[in-house]
């Protein structure tokens, strides 16, 4: 093994996914020298095995579903999807799993890329073991940012190793359509992948341990998504756990807690995430390997002056857009501290404070129908002891929704803090509602009073007129 002499940077970033890229972008923009370490593809999970490929797969699914609800067009889209074309386009969108474009972007901002496995080796020190065994030692004058993300978590089940199960990676990168697919889980990945593969021709069975899909959203969100999956031909079973799995030849055999035996060609476990921190040297700085890394609102690890944890690894909000938001905050905080700014803006909504992680986290689930939410659900607000009122509106009452799709089904809810008369949370479920959520995010993050929202006039006839229906219902 060869080793170079230590190379000093202002900032060393572990992980070149969207989060690490954004930390590097912000620190380079502030004039700080920055090294980025990546063991796989530059662009990370989101670009190759999560957000981008899953949405590339789902776009034709949703487009066909929407077109089938429009008179004069519906008869043109009654046949099956061209699965080969869909998969080929997905391959194109992920660059056939090559990262040349992302590497060029890093070069363009002036960050130095080190390919290989990066590990902390004491305070402000990172060692990188390259693919050919070469070893680089990097030191950080100001900060090391851990942006290594998370991995799919597999349950400890009898027989799971022998079935070679799918995780989110295999589900978004598969090159052929399985005839039968069992999906275990009820969250975002399970719901989106069940939607995808059912539409591409799989016979999908969804096994949900809890009461329904999308348990972190308002109950009606999961109910409407489950109804649509069932209508599409999927078998959605709630209150069902997997007892064991095994492979008999090419067939995966699944036994449930009810004693049912299911057969499939593939099985996808979408049952949670675990931090990718098991082998990055946390023990050399007094932290537990494999643990989530708690941080303050500047994304600095508790008890450290130089170590930051940004994105999934801090377990605040496991979504790419939220990780990129955190990266912008962390980059600004690192730059400010490097410049010896005496007082950072860490108050509520300050430039160096990731306040939105607490109050205004948005999420869109690209199922049919789409489900979009920001802020607190009614149950979460009540559990927090807030005095609230939920206002519900059926989206079929909105002219724009009925023009969007014949027989439109959907629902909206806003959760109002009765003491401040501002919004704590908003949820939309229905075709096309993903594009509504940013308006809700502004209302929640900006703590816009209800009486001021009344003067934000939605254009007619758009689905956004649901805001008027919600406010009218609230005012009575």
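-> sequence recovered:
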């Amino acid at each position: 093994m060869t080793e170079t002499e230590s190379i000093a940077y202002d900032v060393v970033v572990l992980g070149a996914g969207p989060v690490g890229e954004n930390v590097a972008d912000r620190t380079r923009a502030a004039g700080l020298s920055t090294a980025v370490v990546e063991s796989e593809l530059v662009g990370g999970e989101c670009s190759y095995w999560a957000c981008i490929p899953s949405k590339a797969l789902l776009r034709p699914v949703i487009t066909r579903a929407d077109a089938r609800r429009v008179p004069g067009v519906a008869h043109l889209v009654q046949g099956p999807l061209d699965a080969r074309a869909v998969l080929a386009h997905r391959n194109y969108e992920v660059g056939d799993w090559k990262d040349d474009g992302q590497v060029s972007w890093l070069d363009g901002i002036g960050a130095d890329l080190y390919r290989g496995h990066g590990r902390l080796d004491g305070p402000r020190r990172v060692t990188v073991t390259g693919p050919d065994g070469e070893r680089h030692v990097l030191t950080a004058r100001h900060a090391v940012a851990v942006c290594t993300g998370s991995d799919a978590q597999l349950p400890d089940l009898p027989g799971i190793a022998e079935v070679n199960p799918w995780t989110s990676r295999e589900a978004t990168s598969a090159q052929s359509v399985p005839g039968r697919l069992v999906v275990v889980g009820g969250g975002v990945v399970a719901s989106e992948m069940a939607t995808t593969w059912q539409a591409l021709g799989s016979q999908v069975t969804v096994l949900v341990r809890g009461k329904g899909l999308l348990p972190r959203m308002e109950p009606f969100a999961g109910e409407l998504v489950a109804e649509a999956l069932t209508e599409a031909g999927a078998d959605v079973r709630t209150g069902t756990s997997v007892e064991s799995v095994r492979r008999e030849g090419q067939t995966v055999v699944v036994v449930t807690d009810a004693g049912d035996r299911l057969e499939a060609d593939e099985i996808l476990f979408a049952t949670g995430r675990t931090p990718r921190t098991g082998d990055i040297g946390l023990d050399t700085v007094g932290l537990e390997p494999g643990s989530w890394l708690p941080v303050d609102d500047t994304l600095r690890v508790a008890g450290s002056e130089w170590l930051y944890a940004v994105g999934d690894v801090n377990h605040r909000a496991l979504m790419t857009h939220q990780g990129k938001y955190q990266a912008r905050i962390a980059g600004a905080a690192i730059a400010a501290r490097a410049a010896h700014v005496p007082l950072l803006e860490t108050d509520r909504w300050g430039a160096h404070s990731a306040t939105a992680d607490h109050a205004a986290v948005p999420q869109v689930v690209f199922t049919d129908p789409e489900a979009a939410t920001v802020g607190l659900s009614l149950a979460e607000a009540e559990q927090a002891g807030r005095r609230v009122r939920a206002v519900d509106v059926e989206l079929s009452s909105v002219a724009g929704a009925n023009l969007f799709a014949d027989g439109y089904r959907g629902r909206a809810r806003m959760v109002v803090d009765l003491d401040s008369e501002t919004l704590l949370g908003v949820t939309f479920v229905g075709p096309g509602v993903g594009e509504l959520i940013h308006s809700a995010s502004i209302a929640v993050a900006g703590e816009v009073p209800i009486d001021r929202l009344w003067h934000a006039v939605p254009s007619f006839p758009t689905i956004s007129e649901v805001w008027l229906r919600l406010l009218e219902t609230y005012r009575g």
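The domain at 160-271 is CATH 3.50.50.60 (FAD/NAD(P)-binding domain).
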